[in-house]
Design brief:
mainly beta, 1 helix
Amino acid sequence: MRIFGHRGWRLVPGLLLAWGIAGAPVSGTPAARPAHDAFPGEADLPPAQLTRLGSVLFFVAADADEAPSVWRTDGTAAGTLRVPTLGDPVPGGGDVRILGQIGQSMVWTARVPGTLYDRVLFSATESGPRLTLGTYSPAPPASNTRQIDTPQIIGDRLFFQNCPPAGCRIWSTDGTTAGTGPVSALAQLTATDQAIMGSLAGKWLVIRSRQAVFAYDLAADRVLSLLPQGAQFVEIHPVGETLFLVTRTERSKLWASRLGSPRAAQLFSATTLDVAGWRGDLLYFAPDGGRLWATDGQPKHTHPYTGARVESFSLFADRLGSVGSTTFVPVPGYYLGALYGTDESTHKLRELVRVCSYKYECLGTRMSGVTVAGRQAFETIDHSLWQSDSTPQGTKPHDVLHLADEKSFAVLGGRLVLGATSLDGERQLWETDGTVAGTRALSDGTLDQPFIVEGPPVPLGDALVVAAFREPEGYQLWLVAGGRATPLTALRHPPQ
């Protein structure tokens, strides 16, 4: 059996459109997985599958005889079942993506069998059968792009792109067949390069069409022109109530569009400019020269940080964490890799720990984003778990846990819960506050039968639900409570 968990970034990066999207990050794990973990199409798995709706969790699973499909669990083995189909079944051809909750329904898509891009849209309530909402055709990527189907949930509606031969349209659904159809206010946007870029503050749907950027204001049911100048390469970063846009032509330019003033205003221009991440209402970026800057979208609140400099081309856009007045900025580095910290009171940047120096030492070095739990920040450096209290002397490897999977990080009750291997070689689901006394195993794996976690655990009642591997059960969905892990599924594995 294969339970599909997280793949790719642990934290959602800035939403990039096809014309300028960054290469997919390398996915890694602390140790090799068992051979039967491989399942056809695994590389195409979406980033999030365990998804709550009311008192149940929806997830995607498959066994040796069944293609991936959506299941749900109430935390008991008897209540863990494939979502039943209402009426004539409409098959999906794999690449199942749970999109999230709209109203009282969970919505997901799957590829239409025998096609490359066509998809079928499904929904189900907390206890009801699967409904087929219809099929749609996102625009196939052009030869020089990596255009991605990016449906967006705003309020109680899901918005998605449909590009039949007559032209591209933006559709939406409320989770019912009657409530699924084209958005009339967006009928004017039919270009074949049209794509949904993202959303802002639960109020705007952001769309690219004919090298211009628009927003659909849901409350007013109107289309707003954000960036009409036309730019071939555009990426967006929604931060609070400000939409930051980066355009790349002869020079890189940073723009800001706000809910109260939609037309994008230029904030910054440089030969090159890369985004480091965002926190609260602030976007952090670095132009050529390596000086870190921050802005809330207003010119008067756009400022540089003195002190250390960063490799702008080594930055990756991520949600940034903070402890006290320090914001953590990880920079994997090409010639110099380090974890940096800002002093927000003095606008100064300092190096907290050096990861590597020089090109060949940095080659292959990996750093994750930073997750804050309580008064400690956690990240992985070359798969090893590190923690920081925002001081250089307090930035160190964890005293108990060694190898860790950043894709399993979850913050629950002010503690970090994660899949990791201890310094003693014990591989478990753990919780930690950063201290030796506050670190304990939540599962009951052993050295001979490790509990190998895949993806972050999700609370359900007084227990945790997580996808994991342990012999002899193999990969299953597990209920973890009272120091024990009990399988909720009992499906067969694909052949080795």
